[in-house]
Amino acid sequence: MEKKLYTIIVHSENFAGLLNQVTAVFTRRQINIESLNVSASSIKGVHKYTITAWTDPDTIEKVTKQITKKIDVLQAHYFTDDEIYQHEIALYKITTPILESRPEVSKIIRKHTARIVEVNEVFSIVEKNGMSEEITSLYEELRAQECVLQFVRSGRVAITTSCFERVNEYLADREAKYLQRKQ
User: What CATH number was assigned to the domain covering residues 4-79?
Assistant: First the structure.
């Protein structure tokens, strides 16, 4: 089967050790995680993991089911790029002398709609928000100018393009069942 990039979005309660349990699912199947971003979600007490990995449809389904079975995981779903809106941020530390002496470096930065956020006599910092390919493209062009001192990028952050948040429905259903049991 042909591999493609999938994004898994996991909603969980915030308990120590859960990240290790989630990444172990990938390790056991020898799947390399391309990016990983963990943060608080819009729901109080719920954290959101955004994980990307190259794999096939059958494997991603199995991995997602395994993650969902973890005790503190509320839900896990996988998505293809056309089912989500995704973004990354990158920082490029470049040499200020080259930036100042070569106008083409500034043109490259503007062409990629990046912005210079720090300048001193030794280095400048460029920030780029966007899709993974755009971030890589800017890096390659700056590297060709031999001005990159450091480069770092975030993991993918993503939201679904559907009109509803599955975890909200899950939590509402769970609350309704809890209230029924109490009666």
Answer: 3.30.70.260
